[in-house]
Design brief:
InterPro entries: Abi_system_AbiD/AbiF, Abi_system_AbiD/AbiF-like. This is Abi family protein. The protein is mainly α. A hairpin with a 4-residue loop joins strand 1 and strand 2. The longest helix has 40 residues. It contains twelve helices and two strands. It starts with 8 loop residues before the first helix and ends in a 25-residue tail after the last helix. The chain folds into two domains: 53 residues, no CATH class; 227 residues, no CATH class. Helix 4 crosses helix 10 and helix 4 crosses helix 11. It is globular.
């Protein structure tokens, strides 16, 4: 049976010191450990350990560097959350607009338009929960005014309550012969419906990491987005190999590719570059960053 007692903060500090982590008085270790759990910070000092079983640290490992890594990762999530917000709002707008014009305002309830009916049932069940829970005055007024209409509110009202993940699933589940599915992909420079679903899944996953304050630095990401052989818009010349899809870089590139459509005069490159400059102890290789990535055609702003 697993038995382990909880350590006080002072005991946590002493244990880290005994294992070789350099902690100076000015590092504020007691303060940080009282606001950021030992377990959470452990995700950042893990790579500094020489022996992963005994948890002993490599020479010259510093608590200050652990906090720098933690802060870099936190600021990276904030930056990406801002980018993903723009992509989410754009995708929602395009899906509502194109599909409501191709069909009607309740296309998202039309089982004839989707490949997997069971997946659609789950999506609609989650949507119903969101609509029942929302305090949005537009939804409440609609339901009150049209109480005899048992359908969901129209797409431009209902889908404002959905997450990026739900939008991604709705889009991916659409039948491939639906014109709007290709039109939306083309507008993002994804050529057709073959590629965009995997991009959206990738971005949705990262959005969830950001929303739940999960580590992105030095993290292996599951899933592999499909890449175009000849993208119609500016892309990268040094394309990552399949094994490099585990790292964040290729996912950052997809975000930048779509962001250049949604907000052509964006400052993603400058902000990401500034973040690496602010935290020079962060190894860009831990994110799979390529040498001179900011000079790639994709990342060079032409505003």
């Amino acid at each position: 049976m697993f038995v382990k007692r909880a350590f006080t903060i002072k005991e946590q500090i002493e244990q880290l010191k005994s294992r070789g982590l350099i902690i100076n008085p000015e590092d504020g270790a007691e303060h940080f450990l009282s606001h950021i759990s030992y377990y959470r910070l452990g995700e950042y000092w893990y790579v500094m350990q020489d022996d992963k079983v005994a948890h002993t640290f490599k020479p010259n490992s510093k608590f200050a560097d652990v906090i720098a890594l933690y802060n870099f990762d936190r600021e990276l999530r904030i930056l990406l959350f801002d980018v993903i917000e723009k992509l989410e709002i754009s995708l929602r707008t395009k899906m509502i607009y194109h599909l409501s014009h191709e069909f009607d305002a309740w296309w998202f309830q039309n089982f004839d338009l989707f490949q997997d009916s069971r997946a659609l049932v789950k999506t609609l069940a989650n949507l119903e929960e969101e609509i029942n829970r929302t305090k949005d005055i537009t939804i409440k007024s609609h339901l009150k005014k049209h109480k005899d209409d048992l359908r969901f509110p129209p797409a431009w009202k209902s889908l404002e309550q959905t997450s990026l993940g739900a939008l991604s699933k709705l889009y991916g589940n659409l039948k491939n012969n639906i014109k709007s599915k290709d039109i939306i992909a083309q507008e993002y420079g994804a050529v057709n419906h073959t590629y965009l679903p995997s991009w959206l899944q990738s971005i949705s996953q990262i959005r969830n990491y950001c929303a739940h304050h999960s580590r992105l630095w030095n993290k292996n990401l599951p899933g592999a987005p499909k890449l175009l052989s000849k993208p119609p818009f500016e892309w990268i010349s040094d394309v990552p190999k399949q094994h490099e899809f585990l790292y964040l870089y290729v996912h950052l590139c997809l975000m930048k590719y779509m962001l250049n459509v949604v907000q052509p005069e964006n400052h993603f490159t400058e902000k990401l570059s500034a973040l690496f400059e602010k935290y020079p102890n962060v190894d860009p290789n831990a994110l799979g960053m390529k040498t001179d990535w900011e000079k790639e055609p994709l990342w060079v702003n032409r505003n």
